[in-house]
Amino acid sequence: MKRVVCVLAWVLAMAVAAEAAPIRLERGVGVHEWLNWSPVGKDGSYIWPPYRSEQEWLAGQRPLTDWPGGDEFARIRSMGFDFIRLSVDPGPLLASEGAKREQALDILAAAVERVTSAGLKVVFDLHGVTQVPAYGMEMIYGGADSEGVARYREMVVAVATMLVKIGADKVALEPYNEPAYYPCDSSGSDDWQRIMEGTVHDIRAVSSELTIVATGACGGSIAGLANLTPGFDDPNLYYSFHMYEPHSFTHQRPDKSNNFASGLPWPADSSTPEVVSEMLKARMEAAGLSTVEQVMNMATARETIARYFEQDWGQSQLEASFRQAVDWAEGHGIPSRRLFMGEFGVILMSADGRMGALDADRLRYLTAVRRQAERFAIPWSVWEFSNPYGMTLILPDGPAVPDPEMLQALGLR
Which pLDDT score is estimated for 13? Predict the structure, then answer.
């Protein structure tokens, strides 16, 4: 009889495991300016209570009157998104303990519930920034056994505990964003492997049901993912990668304020180095750069342009990048639907032509990346909802309305 009971318990456990799955995610958008870069005072410490209100966020880069009013997250839902990737500065949590930390967690819990009340799920992205150096991501780069990593992991446990109370059917926890362990943690230290594995173990001690978004090192790239060994895998895990390949196209911006870096096409074979160079010269001339400034700028730009066309970036390279991620997943028995493209985007050319891609090239790239993700049933989150820096769904000037052509590229209405 005892043996029968044990067998039945094993069968039940296997059935539960077979039915377990991460929360369903399909199409998301990053919301970065609300809870990231928590305000700091003149002394360099966080203003308390931390984080911005929703109104402060919306009014941060433009007049509040630009916004149409009503429920902004309901509007995001109406565009066809089913989740937001909510990036959160972990600094105030790392800088506090006891009642102060609980106050910060209560603010974040209210923000998450604000989003979920509009019918959206939330990927809670702990997105370290550099404004208070003691609590930036540098604190975890001292190795897996460092005090900084121990403090960070303890903070993650507190966040997981808060999120579970909201509901494991509504939220997922992404404990690290673009960890800068290089070269992709293949140097033999194994630090990132141990950090990620230990963090998953910590969260699982809080909840077996909370969805976790794990990531590789190397800035959260596909290369970093491919160096991760998912021995800690369970059915409630997603595996993140960010798609900014090639970076020379997605992030066209100059190193110096008086320089120009713009106009590389997508795909590369849709133009020529000569055409790109001539258009760049025309933009510099229109901006009033002197002949000397133009010559100096072209000396730098010419090498970037030549390299981009030599690499001949286009659809085949994009497919190969996705194939690398999918092959990694399949090699570990993980379905591609449990991959997670947490960021992708392209800087749109600025009005003065100093930076970014032409709109037609940007839209072709976004369409191609989105289709590749959907080909393998990979959920995605585009970067990002609203900002003045060139990667934005909401148009940066005038009425705060979504870019209709970008929505179309994303397969949304």
Answer: 38
Q: Where are the domains of the chain?
A: 22-251+314-409, 261-310
Cα distance between residue 378 and residue 17, in whole Å: 21
22-251+314-409: CATH, from 3.40.50.300, 3.40.50.11930, 3.30.980.10, 3.20.20.80 = 3.20.20.80
Using a 10 angstrom Cβ sphere, with 0-12 exposed, 13-18 middle and 19 or more buried, the burial of residue 40 is middle
Helix 147-166 with 98-116: angle, nearest 10 deg: 50
Write out pLDDT tens, residues 339-381: 999 999 999 999 999 999 999 999 999 999 999 999 999 999 9
Please give the DSSP secondary-structure letter assigned to residue 391.
Answer: -
Please write the tens of the pLDDT for every residue from 234-287: 999 999 999 999 999 999 998 877 789 999 999 999 999 999 999 999 999 999
Contacts of 195 (CB under 8 A, 6+ apart): 140, 144, 149, 153, 176, 179
Q: How confident is the model at residue 1 (pLDDT cuts 50, 70, 90)?
A: low
The Cα-based distances of 158 to 105, 106, 154, 173, 398 in angstroms read 8, 11, 7, 12, 40
Q: How many residues does the chain have?
A: 413
DSSP for 2-69, please give it.
Answer: HHHHHHHHHHHHHHHHHH--PPP--EEEEEEEEESS--B-TTSSBPSS-S--HHHHHTSSS-GGGS--
Q: Answer yes or no: are the C-beta atoms of 306 and 269 closer than 8 Å.
A: no
Q: Would you say the C-alpha torsion 284, 286, 291, 292 has a positive or negative sign?
A: negative
pTM score of the predicted model: 0.93
Tokens of 42: 């003149």
Among 412, 358, 405, smallest CA distance to 381 is for 412
Instruction: Calculate the dihedral angle through the C-alpha atoms of 105, 106, 111, 115, rounding to the nearest 10 degrees.
Output: 100
In DSSP terms, 237 is beta-bridged to 212
Beta bridge pairs of residue 87? 125
Residue 4, pLDDT > 60, answer no
Q: What is the pLDDT of residues 85-112, one digit of tens each?
A: 999 999 999 999 999 999 999 999 999 9
Cβ atoms of 379 and 340 closer than 8 Å: yes
Helices (H) and strands (E) in the chain, counts: 14, 10
For 175, 298, 334, the CA distances from 184, given in Å and listed in that order, are: 18, 33, 21
